[in-house]
Amino acid sequence: MRLSRRSFLAGTTSAAVAAAAPRAMGAGGARTTLRMEPGQIEVAGKAAKRYRVAQASGAFGLTLNEGDEFNVRLENGLAVLAGLHWHGLTEPWRQDGVPYLSGPPIAPGAARDYNFAATPPGTRWMHSHFGLQEQNLLAAPLIIREASAIRGGAQEVVLFLEDFSWTSPEEIFDGLRKRPAAGMAAGAMTSMAGPDLNDVDYDAYLANERTLDDPEVIRVERNGEVRLRIINAGASSNFTIDLGNVQGTLVAVDGNPIAPLPGRRFPVAIAQRADVVLRMPADGAAVPILALGEGRRLRTGIILQPPGAAVAKISPSTSEMGPQVGLAQELELRASAPLARKPADRSIPVDLTGTMMGYVWGMPINGMGGLPGTVDRGERVEIVFRNTTMMSHPMHLHGHVFQVVEVDGKPIRGAIRDTILVPPKATLKVQFDADNPGLWAFHCHNLYHMAAGMFGTLVYRGFS
After folding, report:
1. Model-level pTM?
2. 346-460 CATH, one of 3.40.50.300, 2.70.98.10, 1.10.8.50, 2.60.40.420
3. pLDDT in tens, 416-442
4. Is there a contact between 415 and 256 (Cβ–Cβ < 8 Å)?
5. CATH H-level, domain 10-147: superfamily
6. What residues of the chain score a pLDDT lower than 70?
7. Beta bridge partners of 33
8. What angle do CA 442, 448, 452 make, to 5 degrees?
9. pLDDT given at position 271
10. What CATH number does domain 161-332 carry, 3.40.50.740, 3.40.50.620, 2.60.40.420, 2.40.50.140?
11. What is the DSSP letter of 322?
12. What does residue 93 show for φ and ψ, rounded to 5 degrees?
């Protein structure tokens, strides 16, 4: 069996090994070096040169244990300016990895050191926040294994999802910014009737850097328990995870624990994560874990293979379009450790604006474009997202987690997240405690929406 470099948890496939997995580095331990460098993958039998993030050992991304320090040297082995943001962590703002906001980008051949408490634990990830590099696959998993997961001993498998185009991201973006009447560049598409589910007509979807033409096959125990750590690292694609005939249980979203929710299909919007626990079938059959592209007839996935199980070939294309990702499941989620009940000290209205015609997007805060949201340390802050557009927007706030507390006027005690999908014409409220002073990025995580103007900041008054 050939293993992708992205199968970085494959070494902990047995429950016994997973439970006793050594720390990547402990508090005060040795520094780990991550390197941004050129990489090559294969898509439909053709080689594609993109970027990658790897340790010196070749391990893709980074795995820590709860209680570890995040002690990393990030080297730039590319020929261009670059950097990484540690998505979902509550690091000090100057170590957030957003170029020109928390610090300058890293020059070719240079390096930068990061050191802070690796919190909160859970399924996180890392990605470039410079230009359109994320579309060129400059991203990787970042897992901080919960003490409870280590004790539980389930085999852990990462499913890292990305979208791929043979067209360069710069060409895609240029095409999106042209009016449809003038023609669209290769890789860009629009829909003029009803909700716009996709901006970009991708050539393939990737799971652990491979397509279903040649999927990653991961050895698992017969009748064993598996914890899937699913990361949607797509630049502009929502997915629905399909377990087929196998029942799974959603136990965490965006790395944060929830009341267990059983099911066979789980939506994962751009930048969101989902931890799903499943029991392999007693008959020893292989189990495909598929990711269906929203509004597309494309899919990707991995195969879980017990000893001796046959692995059937699965086409990367389907006869039916992938489901639209909405909030039906979001309404069912309940945080295991919700925020303490208290009234908001401050409410910040954020309008999500824009159109596919001309491809200009915005997120005026307090009704004013270009100005930040401001908070004081110690406040309970409410953000009110009002989507005026015909597209969904996955909204991400750096350096914090928040709780979903209202969906279209319906109060809920929802999940703790760092990224929330706001569907077309919907209004959502989230709340967080202002406990991490700094200057924080706040934006839509659809890469092209962000690049076209859907980017703002959250600023603490008087921070230093």
Report:
1. 0.92
2. 2.60.40.420
3. 999 999 999 999 999 999 999 999 999
4. yes
5. Cupredoxins -  blue copper proteins (2.60.40.420)
6. 1-29, 179-195
7. 73
8. 70
9. 98
10. 2.60.40.420
11. B
12. -60, -30
